[in-house]
UniProtKB/TrEMBL annotation:
Cellular compartments per GO CC: nucleus
UniProtKB keywords: Methyltransferase, S-adenosyl-L-methionine, Transferase
Reactions catalysed according to its record: L-lysyl(4)-[histone H3] + 3 S-adenosyl-L-methionine = N(6),N(6),N(6)-trimethyl-L-lysyl(4)-[histone H3] + 3 S-adenosyl-L-homocysteine + 3 H(+)
Domain SET residues, every copy: 1-90
Name under which the protein is recorded: [histone H3]-lysine(4) N-trimethyltransferase
Length: 283
């Protein structure tokens, strides 16, 4: 009987099959976790159905890290019995509008958390350069649009085998343009500095990478939560750079900061933490 129905109206059944597949694909996509190493380099993807049940917040109470094939959920702030366990699905560095754009594009919802409701961090994240003649609102809005355009275009060029020298030039040009309106701590400035740091590392330019990395670290400490993987991974990168330059005291200093974060996010017995201990003893 089912075959008769399919034969009678194949287009309808094809449409239903397509919709069912699309719905299933979107549900699967929303439950896939990106597996990264201690420096947030991509290792692969995995599905953890139980962890995927945890709701999102831009003020997460827990963080998900990985130990072999297992996903660990660890608290990153004090919690009381009955508190909801919340993770962040996205990078929380960015202002409210950008975070929710990302959530709608990837997870099909708008966040209603306390941070999104109050937008209390947006002013610091979008800090403007101090000027004797403050920039007008339209100038600021135009620069925000320019910054978002630069981020999108850089991503496209980065994924299309563009020469590293061209990518670095794109970063430097955008930083010059944005710097006329934005403070150095503005998250759009930090985004392009981070990209520039990555390009410098690829080009084996440790001085350039360190110059950008030290600036970024100064502001990441203020803008990210205390136990942020983004911050610990930056400290590890800086530690590697200091070690290569034989700046041992500075190397130990940033690695200790990374370890303090990772003992909470990964646990004291995690391989990454024990390996970090070993590396610190070799400095």
């Amino acid at each position: 009987m089912l075959q008769d129905c399919i034969s009678f109206s194949p287009n309808i059944w094809r449409s239903l099959a397509t919709k069912t597949f699309s719905h299933s694909f979107l549900r699967l996509r929303a439950t896939v976790f990106t597996i990264e190493d201690e420096e947030l380099s991509h290792l692969g993807t995995a599905v953890y159905p139980d962890v995927a049940l945890i709701n999102h917040s831009c003020l997460p109470s827990v963080i998900v890290t990985y130990n072999g094939t297992s996903a660990d959920v660890r608290a990153v702030r004090d919690m009381n019995p009955g508190d909801e366990v919340l993770i962040s699905y996205i990078d929380v560095l960015y202002p409210t509008e950008d975070r929710n754009t990302r959530l709608r594009e990837s997870y099909y919802f708008t966040c209603q958390c306390q941070e999104c409701g109050s937008q209390s961090s947006d002013q610091a994240k979008l800090k403007l350069r101090k000027r004797s003649d403050p920039a007008e609102a339209e100038v600021i809005n135009t620069m925000v649009r320019y910054a978002r355009k630069c981020i999108r275009e850089f991503r496209v060029f980065k994924n299309s085998n563009t020469p590293a020298s061209t990518l670095l030039e794109m970063c430097e040009q955008s930083l010059d343009e944005m710097g006329a309106v934005f403070d150095e701590s503005n998250v759009y400035m930090l985004h392009m500095m981070y990209q520039a740091m990555g390009v410098c590392l690829y080009m084996q330019d440790p001085d350039g990478a360190l110059r950008y990395g030290e600036k970024i670290a100064k502001y990441y400490r203020k803008l990210y939560p205390a136990y942020s993987l983004n911050l610990s991974s930056l400290y590890l990168k800086l530690g590697r750079l200091y070690f290569g330059m034989e700046r041992n005291s500075e190397c130990i200093s940033v690695l200790k900061k990374a370890k303090a974060i990772m003992e909470v996010t990964h646990g004291k017995n995690h391989f990454y933490v024990t390996e970090l201990d070993r590396q610190m003893k070799e400095v």
